[in-house]
Amino acid sequence: MVYCNNLSVVSSLNSGHVQDPLxxxxxxxxxxxxxxxxxxxxxxxLASSNNCGVDxxxxxxxxxxxxxxxxxxxxxxxxxxxxxxxxxxxxxDTF
Length: 95
Hints:
Elements: E1 2-4, H1 7-15, H2 21-36, E2 43-45, H3 52-58, H4 64-74
Parallel strand pairs: 1-2
């Protein structure tokens, strides 16, 4: 089960119908991996208000306000920022 605050993604994952080409490419990759590794993916919508940590992280790059709010809420957990290579985020439509 994948929890997501984006209703379009939830609907597309569950129905198999997608209109956005980039989202379609991403979902084909997920479905390919699911078929190869024999697992099923289902999505459930989770409102941003019920998932504030992830919502703040998804906006991290937009403003220090989001960073400050995240750190004030979750900083006591001893989290450490990690740099991830840019090529981890290269999307491809090869699936």
